[in-house]
Amino acid sequence: MDHASYIALRALRRGPVGQSVWIYNRGVDMDGLRRFQRNLENTLLGRRIERSPLPFGRHRWVAGARSGAIAVSASERPRSQVWDWANERAKIPVDPETGPAWHLAVQPLVGGGAAVSLVFSHTIADGAASTLSIVSAVQGHSWDLGYPDPGSRSVGRALREDLGTTARLLPGIPSALIGTVRLQRQQAAAHPKPKRGTRKKKVSGPDVPVTVPMVAASIDIATFDEKVAELSGTRNAFVAALAARLGHALGRVDGDGQVMLTFPVSERTEGDTRGNALNVITVTVDPDTVLTSLGPLRKAVKDALVEMAANRDAIMAPLPLIPFVPKFLMATVEKAVLQEGQPIGCSNAGDMPAALSRIDGTEADFFIGRMIENGVTEAAFARRGGHLALGVTISNGTVAISIASWKVGGPNSAPALADAVTKAFADFGLAPTIQW
């Protein structure tokens, strides 16, 4: 899966990045933050990818380079500009192969506060891997992964070793091909082509990258949990309900008025060193029913999890073929997959470890995690049917929700998105703090 993430990154010339943002109402202890930075180099973030000299060879993890100095802004900014700065930092490139795979920065705020940004390549670490890395760095725990230095193999040795690895993979290729064909047939049956003579509505837009509006909504955990109890649900279900209402507010509904929610499911195990240890489930729900009961939504999610477990081997069948897939086919696959429906990404990381908020040794006043995909064009979003994703973290008694949205035909601005978020929360009688 990590290999697939890397190939997609190179094929599409873009890929998702993760960003963690901490806000301190006082200044940051720079000595503590430098210690945190050094410790991060000994976690899952402290590595890079080295390509095989074979075009179809298995790439490998190698030790990362030193991360360099923390980028500290020379001038202060008012608190109202924190998210402008965070968005600027998110656009500074990271690369899992050439580096840097991550970067750390500090923005002093007027009045003595400060904001800290950590941006990392999603190919290196998904949300769970980044959380583990941050907590390990705060606690001073080294992973001792033992990765070799980049370029430590001669070309001859690399060819011999990678040819041997490929030879060991070959016996599994026929079954992977069969599984891939079977999976394609299942997907074709689930998404039949329009009848002959039925024209699909064409959508288009400029083929230039756009900046996706993002807002941060926060609400105290006591108020959040009170609403969860009122609806006889769970935190996960209520997050999904909020996503459903936001999708409704933004017009992301199908012909029957239903919304499609997608949930990442972590498959990370103890000692897992994969960058991406994820699966995905999809459910379709009525955004009106969630206002009074979370029962149908919870049942839909439970059924989807059971189905995912039953079909996991079939879903994962194509993965052994990844080293042999040409780049241009990866781009074609993405276009084909993302044209179906108007999914709403819904990721709830839940309660964060206490150490996550103590990157300089002291407690931050606010933390939020975000997932960002730079470089997507308006034309690509038009083919996808737009974009909507929510990411939730809970720390220091606060539920923080990152929301990113692109609506085909607009309006596309942070204030317009904030209005929709306000409406979605108001549907449940809640009034969060919204920042952008």
From TrEMBL:
Ranges annotated as biased composition (Basic residues): 192-203
Location of region: Disordered: 185-207
Name of the protein described by the UniProt record: Diacylglycerol O-acyltransferase
Organism: Mycobacterium adipatum
